[in-house]
Amino acid sequence: MGGTVIIYSSFAGKTRKIAKYMAEKAGWDIFDLKLQTNIDLTSYDRIIMGTGVHNGNPYARVTRFVEDHADVFLDKDVALFVSCLYVGERAAKQCSEIAKEFHINNAVFFSTRGEKNEVGLPKDVDAFIERMKS
Ligand SMILES: Cc1cc2nc3c(=O)[nH]c(=O)nc-3n(C[C@H](O)[C@H](O)[C@H](O)COP(=O)(O)O)c2cc1C
Q1: For residue 70, is it within any domain?
Q2: 97 belongs to a structural domain
Q3: Is 116 in the pocket of ligand 1 (CB under 6 A)?
């Protein structure tokens, strides 16, 4: 049985907080691309990529990792979460553009301006964890 891994990059710490919360809550492995890019993906069925957005663009480390592992990703269940400032339609459009660039169909955004859960993280994070666990 393969597991799930979260691989992310963060500048201001928001993506990191979300990634760490998900990893702790669900018991998933987690890697920060700022610290490590050589990650053995063979034991994972599911890969969750996480990025913030600067001027509409995902973080370069995440883009590079996705590009470098395009062949491996074909055999995995890959999801993306985008930590962003935008809300609503604008955020949805931004998220789907990044997802398209990455060739990842399963993509969500977590807005820093949206509703929060009990630990102050975007409320939608909990539903995403549940969905990814099933
Ligand atoms: C220079 C800069 C540009 C940004 N551009 C965007 C943007 O185009 N769209 C957006 O939704 N958020 C934008 N943001 C907000 C960040 O994407 C958001 O705060 C995100 O949660 C940051 O993640 P991080 O803390 O992991 O780096 C920008 C932030 C900065 C500092």
Answers
A1: yes
A2: yes
A3: no
> Can you give the pLDDT at residue 132?
95
Atom of ligand 1 nearest to the CA of 51: 26
Tell me whether residue 98 is in a domain: yes
Gap between the Cα atoms of 74 and 22, Å rounded? 24
Residue whose CB lies within 8 A of the most ligand 1 atoms, among 84, 86, 90, 101, for a mutation test: 84
**Domain extent for 99:** 7-27+63-114
Q: Is residue 73 one of the residues assigned to a domain?
A: yes
Angstrom distance (rounded) from CA 3 to CA 47: 9
pLDDT along the chain (134 residues), means of 10: 91 98 98 97 97 98 98 96 98 98 98 95 97 91
Could you tell me the distance, in angstroms and rounded to a whole number, from the CA of residue 90 to the centre of ligand 1?
13
* The total number of structural domains that make up the chain: 1
Long-range own/partner contacts, residues 70-74 (CB < 8 A, 24 or more apart):
70/103, 72/41, 73/47, 73/103, 73/104
Task: For ligand 1, atom 18, name the residue with the nearest CA.
Answer: 84
pTM for the whole structure: 0.98
Residue 2's pLDDT is what?
Answer: 77
